[in-house]
From TrEMBL:
It comes from Sulfobacillus benefaciens. One of its GO terms (cellular component) is nucleoid. It comes from the Bacteria. This is Chromosome partitioning protein ParB. The keyword Transmembrane helix does not apply. Gene3D superfamilies: 1.10.10.2830, 3.90.1530.30. PANTHER family: CHROMOSOME-PARTITIONING PROTEIN PARB-RELATED. It is found in: Cytoplasm, Nucleoid. It holds the Pfam family HTH_ParB. Keywords: Chromosome partition, DNA-binding. One of its GO terms (biological process) is chromosome segregation.
Length: 290
């Protein structure tokens, strides 16, 4: 994958200080009509807190918009690159114009700014954060190491968040709304897919702690064993331990004498993470890696 070309100095380098001599020029700060501004299609944030928008709106009424938004020209209109909260708050405050910096940036640059700046603010929910990493990786070709360097996160943290995207939409919604934590998601990812929905619903409705969810995951039957099959309790216990440590489904087949270990993986990065764990390189990231 390509290394991030980046915009070098980041968003700040694209927005001149209000005292700059560029103010009023095309490349400086200008006032533009709010109704000519379209949202950024690459915005990773899907939820904007009404309370936060209302508070920002009151601040704008009191002291104005202290930092201009960043837009790019698209046909006869403007498309947001950064500043959607300020635009929403300005609309709530009844303003018809906002200060803006106009820059001609490509789709890739607009995506990069939107994703990286939101990730650096660290106020995305876990699913929004995971999708932002996914877009930087899949659409811009960044490696997980490159993403981590740019946003100040470890590779294991990024890999663990990306695994959330393997959960169903309904479970992702529960995580986005804060009904389930990332730690709950770790447990759900360690059980077979057919059990996840039921466990997730019960965890939310019965307000399970992570410890309770882990207990239910470990003790609820995951497979039906025929009368002729022998279950090695020691292998099952080891299987549970491996699932916890790797944060994914692990299946041991065989007996105490010989057998096989099945560990599914969905990317080379995830495979490398498993190898590091199995080799004892556990790192310091407190996420899924234990």
């Amino acid at each position: 994958m390509a290394k991030p070309r980046g915009l070098g100095r980041g968003l700040a380098s694209l927005i001149p200080d209000k005292g700059s001599s560029e103010v009023g020029q095309e490349t400086g700060i200008v006032e533009i009509l709010v109704n000519l501004i379209d949202p950024n299609p690459f915005q990773p944030r899907k939820h904007f807190s009404p309370t936060e928008i209302a508070e920002l709106s009151q601040s704008i009424l009191a002291v104005g918009i202290l930092q201009p938004i960043l837009v790019r020209p698209v046909d006869a209109r403007y498309q947001l690159v950064a500043g959607e909260r300020r635009v929403r708050a300005a609309q709530a405050a009844g303003l018809d114009r906002v200060p803006a910096v106009i820059r001609s940036v490509s789709d890739a640059e607009s995506m990069e700014i939107a994703l990286v700046e939101n990730l650096q603010r660290r106020d995305l929910n876990p699913i929004e954060e995971a999708y932002a990493y996914w877009r930087l990786s899949e659409e811009l070709g960044w490696t997980q190491e490159a993403i981590g360097t740019r946003v100040g996160k470890s590779r294991s943290h990024i890999a663990n968040l990306l695994r959330l995207l393997g959960l169903t939409d309904s479970i992702q919604g529960q995580i986005s709304r804060g009904e389930l934590s990332v730690a709950h998601a770790k447990v759900l990812l360690s059980v077979p897919e057919e059990r996840r929905e039921v466990l997730a619903r019960r965890a939310v409705s019965e307000e399970w702690t992570v410890k309770r969810l882990q207990w239910e995951a470990d003790h609820s039957p995951s497979t039906k064993v025929s009368a002729g099959d022998e279950v090695d309790v020691h292998l099952r216990a080891l299987e549970v331990t491996l699932r916890r440590n790797l944060g994914t489904r692990v299946v041991l087949r065989g007996n105490s004498g010989k057998g096989t270990i099945e560990i599914p993986y969905h990317s080379v990065d995830e495979l490398e993470r498993f190898l590091e764990l199995l080799q004892g390189d556990r790192g310091s990231d407190p996420g899924f890696v234990v």
